[in-house]
Amino acid sequence: MENAAMGAGDFTGRLLWSKAGAYVCVLFSRDGGLIWSVDRLDEENLRISLFHSGDGTLAHSLDLEDPFGDSALRLMDIPGSDAVTLELAAGQDGISVYELFIQQDGLCSREMFPQGCYLSPAWHPDGSQLFTLENDAQVYACFSYPALELLEEQGLNDGDYDDEYEEEDHYPGYGMLYLQNGQVLTQNTNERFFLFDPETMARIGEWAFAGYEPVPASVVFPSLDDDPSLYSQLQSCERVGSLLIFRTGSLHDITHLLMIEEAALQEGIGSMLTRPRG
């Protein structure tokens, strides 16, 4: 909608209701009966509102300070929970993630990781734990939920690499997806996908689709003609039901969506890990 207003419509395109404001992000509740929204009041203040999706009446609201000022905002749901997370990201200034939830007295929030600069996490499908990246130290960590007790954290990198490109290969990106088998798909800064074991905090191996393997960085960025590193053709991955959906990046003029049943991906990973190495 125009001027950052928010509205809801039906499948015929008819507008059911609208709200004026500077809405930055919205998210349906798990049952679809409510809509979470974040309205930026000014650079330092936000308003979290829950509206009934059918008629737009206000259910709850909560004002929240943006500690960094004019942060980039992201709402994400939590598997098996009516709570959601709100990430406030301001680059080098910091990142904070808040859990937003409803109690009898209204809408409440808690900062999830006051002890560090952790990103919005990847959730285990059963909601019992989460996997995230500490952005300052660039290390992965695993927490229980809802207690948010630190279970495992990756050690700091010792910097023992053959060259700068091998080191860059290990720089973590922001993409993370927890699989049903307890392993995690992570990405590096070149968007390549790697299987990661949260128990050992170690990378296991790389995952790519046939025909969409990583290409030289110069193919994606022609100005990097002397860069020998590899860059992913796939930019992101998300779970929709039992499917994992991968999306291509800027290399393709028309976005390609690659869909695979999660069970088939796990079977492929199992074959990759047990294949004899010659």
Structure description:
The chain is mostly beta strands. Helix content is about 10%, strand content about 45%. It contains three helices and 23 strands. It has helices at about 165-170, 215-220, 260-275; strands at about 5-10, 15-20, 25-30, 35-40, 45-50, 60-65, 70-75, 85-90, 95-105, 105-110, 120-125, 130-135, 140-145, 150-155, 170-180, 185-190, 195, 200-205, 215, 230, 235-240, 245-250, 255-260. The strands form seven sheets. It has a four-stranded antiparallel beta sheet, with no helix packed on it. Strands 7-8-9-10 form a four-stranded antiparallel beta sheet, with no helix packed on it. A hairpin with a 4-residue loop joins strand 16 (about 185-190) and strand 17 (about 195). The protein is globular, with a radius of gyration of 20 Å.
Task: Describe the secondary structure blueprint for this structure.
Blueprint: E1 6-9, E2 15-19, E3 23-28, E4 34-42, E5 45-52, E6 58-65, E7 72-77, E8 84-89, E9 95-103, E10 106-111, E11 122-123, E12 129-134, E13 139-144, E14 150-153, H1 164-169, E15 172-178, E16 184-188, E17 193-197, E18 202-207, E19 215-216, H2 217-220, E20 230-231, E21 234-240, E22 243-248, E23 257-261, H3 262-274
Antiparallel strand pairs: 1-2, 3-4, 4-5, 5-6, 7-8, 8-9, 9-10, 11-12, 12-13, 13-14, 15-16, 16-17, 17-18, 19-20, 21-22, 22-23
